[in-house]
Structures are given as structure tokens and as C-alpha cells.
Amino acid sequence: MLLAASTQRTVGMVILAIVFIGFVVYLFFSLRGAKPEVGSEIVLAPNRRVDDVPDEVLETRRLDRSLGAALAMLTVIGVALPLYWLGEPGRQENRVAGFDRTFTSRGERLYTEGAQCVNCHGPEGVGGVVSTTLTDDSGGFIAQVNWKAPALNTVMSRYSEDEIRYVLNYGRNGVMPAWGAPGGGPLTVQQIDEIIHYLRSIQIPEDEIRAEADAGLRAGVAELLKSERPELADADAATVDAAVDDWLAEVEAVRARADQMAVDADPSIAGDDRAVRAAALELLSDGKVPGNELYWQYGHLLFDNTAGQGAFGCARCHTFGWSYDATTDGPDDVDGHPGPLLDEYVPGGGFFGPNLTNGVTRRVFDTAISHADFITEGQTIGKPYGRGGDGGNGQMPGFGPRTDDDLGVTWPGLLTDDQIDAIVAFERSL
Ligand code: HEC
Ligand code: HEC
After folding, report:
1. Which partner for 152 in 7, 125, 222, 309 could form a disulfide, CB atoms 3.0-4.6 Å apart?
2. Nearest atom of ligand 1 to the alpha carbon of 110
């Protein structure tokens, strides 16, 4: 914008210089070419005879008025035109902002009415569910399930706008419909753009992201502790909360121990945060730290985080059946299926995203820290990763902060570095 404004000024100055030079040239030639009026030497025109008709008679008020009007017009042109020119960049900015508002409000209408995203993704993108029918390969009925539709009020942190455009155009897994023309959907390119403008406007700030992710994680820890310690099952909320706090403090202690072990093994890395992180993460991935199992459990809970209908976690794409609670038995008259659909999940066994078990992630990523970097950034369309990975359509989200250069915005990360590390250690243990 600054560049545009200064270009505008430069062009303005050049035009001004051209006009000025032109005027001087004009003056020069018209003075040089000025000749005495033809016939003037014979007889003077009446208005030039001093003693014939007085000026007062010739110079009527009408002449004053037209001269005055001409002067006023000249002033307007002389003053207003440069002013108009100088104000142009600001006007363009306002125009862009106005355009933005129009797009956002049209996108909102599409979200809530036109395309009914709200029915599945909830008001303002808080997340929701869609009731859908699972069928087998030949189209036979398996069950009626509630499929989690992830929160979209954090989607700008996960994906670039092109990556979002891809899901909107083509849909996903038959449950997220294809909306854009390329995928055979009803919306135009501009309408998809309008929806993206609206999505930008509903993103929640970092403190809310942290709070939501933490709430989901704590719910997971509470459930785990209740299954391990029957006495907690009927305990009041404060008791459960305290137990969760203790558990998380133990996890933190394991992490601190790993950092210490890393520095003890190689004192030269002390003070280099990234080197300590990388070395500690290797130890934690290999199960070499006392209390390591707890750290993996923590990573698993983050992997399975249910907050925002799975928006903060990994299981919805990497664990088959997780998105529709396949291990939970629903009422048979509603889901049409006796018993649960699965006896148990295969964590990270693969679904929309690839299978991460049997050491896959160790083969793809030589080091734990490069694995962590991938989770932080996610896939980028056209950019290779690890050993044999490519950017594809960019559908593996990034969980660290993401900067949109075009908008000049950095969207906050969904997970902290510590949380990403725990998930990495867990995945490398699979
Ligand atoms: C019929 C229900 C339904 C409707 C309507 C719907 N979606 Fe979805 N959408 C889903 C489901 C379910 C998923 C997750 C798919 C999966 O788990 O594979 C999803 C995924 C997405 C994703 C990917 C998010 C992520 O983090 O993975 C985006 C973006 C999205 N939808 C946006 C929209 C927008 C915008 C609209 C309206 C134009 C819309 N959806 C309409 C059900 C729906
Ligand atoms: C919206 C779906 C989605 C979510 C959520 C998701 N992933 Fe992925 N993941 C993918 C896709 C798609 C790929 C790449 C598939 C390809 O191109 O081969 C991928 C690839 C990966 C890979 C590389 C594996 C390989 O063999 O190339 C790792 C590791 C991974 N994901 C970990 C995670 C972790 C950890 C999380 C949660 C913090 C997560 N994923 C969340 C969809 C997802």
C-alpha cells in the first residue's frame, strides 16, 4: 500500500512537471510569435481608444462575473485535482475494506443459508455433527452414525486458503459435500471466495484456542484416570480436577527429566533450546526416560483430543472409525446396528491420512525433530517432506502458527511445541 501510494505521488509529480514545462514552452512560443494586430496601425478598435468608450461601460458586471467564475473554476482545478490525486491511495484502501465487508457478509449468508454449512459445522464454525449412513462397497446398509464435523473457527491456523479451497471444491470422504464447480458442486469460484472471507472473520484468538484445546485434553485425562481408578468415577469435579492437575504435573516432570538427560549426555548443547529439544525428543521417542509411558499416553490423548469435534487432534484423519465413535454402541433402533461397529480402534492405523504404525514415521522422518517440524507446518501443496512425502493437496494440516503473507496475518497455532513433541514421541512409539 505504501509502495502504491508513493508510486501515485511520483506519477503525480511527473504530470505536474510536464504541465509546467508545457506551459513555459507555450508562453515562450506565443510571446515570440506575437505580432501587432493586423490593421492596428490604421485605426484603434473602440475599446482601445482611451477617450472614446470608458472602461466602466465596457467592463460590465457581466464581465466581472464570468472572469470570477473562470477564476473559481481554475482554483477548483488547480487545488482540487492535486488533492483528489493525493487522496486516491486512501480511497483505494477504503474500497478494498468495503469490498472485504461485502464479501464477508455474503459469505456469512452462504454459510448460514445458501450452503447450510451451519447445519454440520455449527454457528460461527464451533463444530458439529452430521448424521450419515455408512454403507459397504456394494452400497449395503451398515449403520446410521453421527460423523464429527470439525470446528472451522480455527481452520485458518490449519490450512492455507488454497488448501481450504481444495476441501470446499472437492469435499471429503463423502461426508463433507463438494461445493465448488471443479468438484461438481453448486457454488461459483466467487462464492467460494466469499465463504473464505467469512471464515477469516470467525477465527478465535489464541487464548480461546489454548483454553479449548486444554479443556479437550483435560476431559481425556479425566476419562483415563476414571478408568484406571474406580474411586474417581463418582468423585466430585474438584477432586477429579486435582487428579488431572497432578497427572499433568507428572508429565511435565518427565519432560523436564528428558531435557536434563539430554544436556547431561552432551553438555555442549546447554543453552541451545532447539538442540536440547531435539535431543530430549529423541530420548522420549525411544522410551529412554523414566516415566516415558506416561508421556506417550499424554501424546495419545492429544492425538485423540475431542475438542472442536477433533479440530485440535489427529485421530479424525489417522484412526479409522474415530470420527463416528465406532467403538461406542448406540441405540440399535437409531443406528440400525447391533453392538459397536468396532471392538477397538487401531490408534494411528490410518484412514483419510496414512497409517502411522509399525515405525512408518521413523522411516519417513530420520529425526524426531524433523517429524515435529512437519506436524508444526503440515503439508504444503507442491512441497515435498521427509522421505517420499509430497505436498499433495496439502490436506495434512499444520498445528503450529501459520503466516498469511498476503493478508499480513499470523494465525495462532493449535498446539504448543511441547504438545507437538508429545504427539511425535507417541507416533514414533507406534
Ligand atoms: C452435510 C454436512 C456438511 C456440510 C453441509 C458442510 N460440511 Fe464441511 N465437513 C463436514 C464433515 C463431516 C467434515 C469432516 C470430514 C472428515 O472427517 O473426513 C467437513 C470438513 C470440512 C473442512 C475441512 C476442515 C478440516 O480441518 O479438516 C472444511 C474447511 C469445511 N468442511 C468447510 C465447510 C464449509 C465452508 C461448508 C459450507 C459451504 C461446509 N463445510 C458444509 C460436513 C459438512
Ligand atoms: C484433516 C486430516 C488430517 C489431520 C487432522 C491430521 N492429518 Fe496427518 N496426514 C493427513 C494427510 C492427508 C497426510 C498425507 C497423506 C499423503 O499425502 O501421503 C498426512 C500425513 C501425516 C504424516 C506423514 C506420514 C507419511 O507417511 O507421510 C504424519 C506423521 C502425520 N500426518 C501426523 C499427524 C499428526 C500428529 C496429526 C495431529 C496433530 C495429524 N497428522 C492430523 C491428514 C491429516
Report:
1. 125
2. 38
